Fold:
Amino acid sequence: MTGRVSSESEEEMSDNSRAEILVVDDDAMSRRVLAQLLTAAGYKCRVCKDGSEALETVHATPPSLLLLDFDMPGLNGAEVLRRLRSDRHSAVAQIPTIMLTAHGSEESEVSCLQAGADDFVTKPVNAAVLRARIETQLRLRSMRRQVERQNDELEKWRRNLERDLAAARLTQQSLIPQKPLALPGWQVATCYRPVIQVGGDIYGWLRMKDGRILFWIVDGTGHGAAAALLTTLAKLLFHHGNVEQDTPATVMEAVNHDFRSIFGSRSFMTAMCVALDPATGSASVVGAGHPPLLVTRRNGTTESVASIAPPLGLIEQPEFPETAINLEPGDAFLLYTDGLFRWTKDERRRLTPQQLEKMLDHSAPTADALLKGVLAHAAPDGAMNSSPDDMTVLAVRRMTGQ
Structure:
């Protein structure tokens, strides 16, 4: 560590010693003395006799630092510096400037700083003081350039990240159903709100071998591009599992097996699926570490179906018990991720499953009305700006008269 600091210090001193300083003073003797002093200190030095010549010289070849006399005939130091500071080129406008003044008063010091000087030195010049202040300004200049380089790198990183997130968003949007499922006798409404452009939630529906519709939802770990890739995998696994298996429990088993074969136990995701027979309204529910399924009855009651199995990916061969439910005309069920409970960072305002049950409108005439009622209470407009988690909700309602 000491060697590194020493190396960096030597590099900085070497850079400073190669720095070029422009001395601007109307007094020939002062110019000569300052030039000799700076050259002896290892700096390159140029001189100008007045403000007009200084402006031309600076614009032609900006120096590393400007040593500028405050009191000069014609364009004085303050006017020269004001013009430089207003220049549209940063290489000119940001030149470190030390003002030379023959007045040691507080008023003179304030005038130098108000003119835009970075520092000032009173005449007659003390060589040690001048060199120390020059080295300080050159060091600050070097640090500013380093910060600018770092800012440029951060901006480049931000642009690359935005491109990655945009690509991930397009990928995820192609995976999420763009419109509700058209299922005769049933209504389907959905809501998907990621924290950023992409999230770790995904849902969908599949037709099973026996004609049932498999509604499924997943909440993976993380956010951003990595989460989008995880949701891509989840959709592929559910599609593959549905092709190979014929029950919601075996589909979950297949997804868990394939997920663990890829990640081991290093990652996990909660999931729930509902295999619905649209003709009869009978359904089988399987949950894996996911928030409970909520069923609203037309008679005003609410039922909750808890997840019995652990999250997918944690255990090699867990059991996935199925829970049977039956949906009569006017009944509906709600699949959602736990982001619905955590729409605010304020722990005191977070919902509980019991509170969510009380928010359900059993008399909602449509699935869309049921969903909007939940969102109006759980995540009102503007609340998602403070949400710490993705939120996805899927409402499925059996129409009356069926």
